[in-house]
Amino acid sequence: xxxxxxxxxxxxxINFWASVPCSIMTPLYNAFDTHxxxxxxxxxxxxxxxxxxxxxxxxxxxxxxxMQNSGLGNAVNPLTSLNQTFQIPLALMVTWxxxxxxxxxxxxxxxxxxxxxxLSLLNIGSDVIDSSQKRLEAIFKELSNKLADRMSHALIIPxxxxxxxxxxxxxxxxxxxxxRFNFQSSGQRPIRxxxxxxxxxxxxxxxxxxxxxxxxxxxxxxxxDQSNFFYQVGxxxxxxxxxxxxxxxxxxxxxxxxGDGAALMKLGNxxxxxxxxxxxxxxxxxxxxxxxxxxxxxxxAQTTDFALIAQACGYRNIYKANCIEGFKDxxxxxxxxxxxTLVHMKIESGSLKNLARPSVxxxxxxxxxxxxxKQHR
Length: 377
Description:
alpha/beta; 7-stranded parallel sheet; elongated
């Protein structure tokens, strides 16, 4: 059954996967990691995996996520507020720990009993894979049809379906010493709107920009509405995961404009970005030390050094700035070097009064963004 599933995945051209490991699916992880066509990116959480795979889809690639059913809870937010909202379809392979009637660890009992109904509640269809080759072919054909109709679909894998194989020895990856530069001065910190405007004036015309949820995306839209801009709504923390999935599937410069609160929510994204090491990714964190979109509550960014974290995670270049001139220098430098690159910019809290929301519907944003990337491969 192992090879039959792998062959079916390749036949349906679902060639990009993001995964959070589960012992039941070890044979598939190992096979995907060494496959000539299929690419697998190991994520630090299921929510991050959803974001990475969604980025690959936006770049024009059929994509999927492998996870344990216990991790469905971590994936609920992006599955509902990202994939449903933008109609980004993903293939899901979900193991069935705690399946009723089968002995398993106690922590899997509740999730095991509700896995199919939880997927249904999320408006995600599902099929349980068994040992029937004929049924497997029908299931994958149905999966392909669902993806073509812009609907995610899950394949549930029982814990005795796959043949256990020896786990591959992890490879050692050498990361070059990070370059770290400070662009500090006594100038006043800008507000976010001015920082975004400054950044856009420096980017090449064909660069793609992903703006984090909340006021960041709203301000980007207010400055300019373009088909190479993606205004993330919901799925807080997933902007950098989206950027990673996109950057691994396009030659264009990919710029993520993040916030400190969103970056803190999924700090594991930085580790995955550093490990995957996409040369075309620039990750900008505009840090006002507040949750500006929800009323200005304080974040823990006052005591967090994003630059040190990025350096420890394997980013190749790290820039820090605290005024607009320093930010200009940092972005200009970032555009000239091979990434992944972090630009950490301290800004003032607050935003424009009567700030508009994007008038373009999320589904249209996703479609035109995907079309743009396909045209610029």
